[in-house]
Design a protein that fits this description.
Shape: globular
Oligomer: single chain
Number of helices: 7
Structural class: alpha+beta
Helix content: 25-40%
Strand content: 25-35%
Distance between the termini: 68 Å
Number of strands: 16
Largest sheet: 8 strands, antiparallel
Radius of gyration: 24 Å
Amino acid sequence: QAWCGSAEKGCFRHFSNLFARTMPGQYSLDPMKHTLSPIVTGATTIGLKFKDGVLCASDTLASYGSEARYKDVCRMKKVGEYSLLGASGELSDFQYLGDQLDELADEDWMNDDGCAMGPKEYSSYIGRVMYNRRSKMNPLYNQFVIVGKKKDEKAHLVYVDHQGTMFEDDFVATGFGSYLAMPILRNEWRADMSLEEAKALVIKCLQVCFYRDCRAYFKINIGVCSVDGVSISEPIAMDHFWGHTAWTEKRLEDTGSVADTW
């Protein structure tokens, strides 16, 4: 209990609540509070290399819990001159990291030394940030795909998750796509794929995710990193079909027999 007296006014004020409000962190009367679970989330993100570069693709849905709330969200971001970041998981954490990367890119530009960070540098930075937050028991709830191609260097593709796990590969998938899309990628990916073949493959994977994952959506963005630069497409509507007989057949009409409804 903390009290403050005023001789002039002869009154006392109770300051325990004031201290709780004005002293955050280790000096607060309240315990430190962290994010315990994601709220607004994105589903699968896919990255894969092709003959002339690397691409990243994700759908445009951000779910509020189990509600398909925001249907026009781009879950990819251009980072620096040569890199692209795709995200699954909590959207606010993705936005926070995006702001951090913008500050890093601005600082890199202000050096004006003729050098620019590429996907290797940005993926290393993101991996350290994610591991640092995990070690503080306050992780960013995301799985990231970092892709890029810096000038004549080889295409770079890295996966980073909320625990700081980080590795490079020829193709990766996050979220439910790590179960539904990875088998397709293992069977059909080739190192000499053209850009159009690579786009067709990621669309096939995201179609499967749309049919099987209730947090997926039929509109997608595709980002491409090549010697021509970094680009993110406008939303693309994938073909889908829900008219199968097993789904449209009326089986619950009153026939007088319970057995006839199964």
